[in-house]
Fold this sequence. Notes:
Layout: E1 6-11, H1 16-20, H2 22-30, E2 34-41, H3 52-69, E3 73-79, H4 88-101, E4 105-108, H5 116-131, E5 149-153, E6 165-168, H6 173-181, H7 184-194, H8 198-213, E7 218-223
Parallel strand pairs: 1-2, 1-4, 2-3, 4-5
Antiparallel strand pairs: 5-7, 6-7
Amino acid sequence: xxxxxxxxxxxxxxxxxxxxxxxxxxxxxxxxxxxxxxxxxxxxxxxxxxxxxxxxxxxxxxxxxxxxxxxxxxxxxxxxxxxxxxxxxxxxxxxxxxxxxxxxxxxxxxxxxxxxxxxxxxxxxxxxxxxxxxxxxxxxxxxxxxxxxxxxxxxxxxxxxxxxxxxxxxxxxxxxxxxxxxxxxxxxxxxxxxxxxxxxxxxxxxxxxxxxxxxxxxxxxxxxxxxxxxxxxxxxx
Length: 237
C-alpha cells in the first residue's frame, strides 16, 4: 500500500491537538512520518488574567514547544480566538496552509464538535483541502495535487462521536502528556474557568477509548467518506 509520508493535523486552538490526537501524531513521528501541526487561532481568549496580546505570544510559544517534542513542523495561522469565520480570505489562507504542508493525510475537528471555532475549522479544512489541488485557485503557493484522505479526531468527552477506527497510543501516551503539559497557561485557565484538570481529563478520555478497543490508551477517529477521500488501505498508524 502507498505509505503515508506527511500528515497535517489542524486544531482550532493551541492545545486542541494535544488533547485529542497527539498520541497518534507522536506514533506517526516514531514511524518516520513527517508531522505538521497547524493552529488556526491565537488562543488569546483563553485566560482569566493575562491580556490577549501577551497571551497570544505565550500560547504560540507553548504550541511550538509541544510540536518540537516530536519533531513536527509548526504552522501558526494567527486568527483571533473565538472570532473565526468563513470568508474568501480565510478560505484562501487555509488553502495555503494545506499547500505548505503537502500532506497525504489530514486530521482535524469533527464537523459537529461543540465549539464554534472547531466547527468552522472543520469546514474550512474540508473545503481548503479540496481546493488545494486546483491550480486556478491562486494563493502564494502552488497547487498540491490530489484530494487528501481526511480523518476527524475525537471531541471533548466523546459526546456524539462514535469512532470507526482507533489508534493504540499506549506507547506514546507519556509523550502526549508531555506535549499537553507544555500548555501551562491552559492548565491554569481550565482550572479557573471550568474547574478541570486538563491532564486528568485527557487521561480519562484516552483510557476510555482504550477500554473500547482493548488497550491501555487509545485515540478515536472517523474518516470523511465523501468522494475522493477514502483509501483502500489503513492510513492511521
